[in-house]
Amino acid sequence: MKGLGNLLDKDMILLDKEANNKEEIINISIKLLGKNKHIKNKEAVLSALLKRESMGTTGIGHGVALPHARTSAVSQIVLAFIRTKNGIDFGAVDKELVNLIFIAVSPENDTDSYMEVMASVARILSKEENRKLLMEVESPKKLISVIKEIESF
Question: pTM higher than 0.85, yes or no?
């Protein structure tokens, strides 16, 4: 894997999106992901994300959620990012509302990239100063450069 900053594309980023709940955010993410050429079937990706979410929340705490799934409906790992304007109840483990959402979908047989992405997101977002930076960026391009900068340390 080449790092989150290289995996993210500015077209896969939404900043200050308004939503009422996690189902709405997941539906918004499908519209976003659907623009990516590596998504072969949006409905199958949606189904995989909802199935994973039904197994337990992907709200990992500190205002962060990481909806993710592995599915044959993608040809390679795809990463998207949504920052909500208003916090969303994601059923997070710490009960906090979520503003920073990374969505990761990968092919069923690509465990290595999938685990690397999940670990990288968790590592970056475990630091309060990184979460603060991601809350303050003003453009998708700046978000990518901030993530690349964080990853370089």
Answer: yes
